[in-house]
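Final report, Chapter 2: Outcomes

The project's central promise was a pipeline that accepts a single protein chain and returns its three-dimensional structure in a standardized token representation, suitable for archiving and comparison. That pipeline is now operational. To close this chapter, we reproduce one record exactly as it appears in the project archive, with the input sequence first and the structure output second.
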Amino acid sequence: VGNGLCVSAPGVYIAIVSTAMEKGNPDDDIIPGLKLLGPIMKRFTAVSNTYEPVSDGTQDKCFISSSFDATSHFEDDVTDMLSLYKRVTGEDLDMNINADSVEADY
């Protein structure tokens, strides 16, 4: 992201390179992404543990989500939340919204 979103100075861009660590050294795992960026002014590296529930919750009614993962736009987390919703309610979340019916919500 850059200056167009008012998050950096003109000509300066902010990038996120993230992955699930597989080689034991986070720097080794992100080298392909770093090579795409060109010169880097400042770099921060962080490693976070991730966790997953040991069961789906249907037997003990203890519904637990997984940890946030390395994706920067929460793709896998949304999938996890939709799965969690279905396990709790027994139904898929209906994401179909009729634009004519939501006017009163505003």
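Archive annotation: Residues 78 and 87 are 14 Å apart (CA to CA).
This record, like all others produced under the grant, will remain available to the consortium after the project formally closes.
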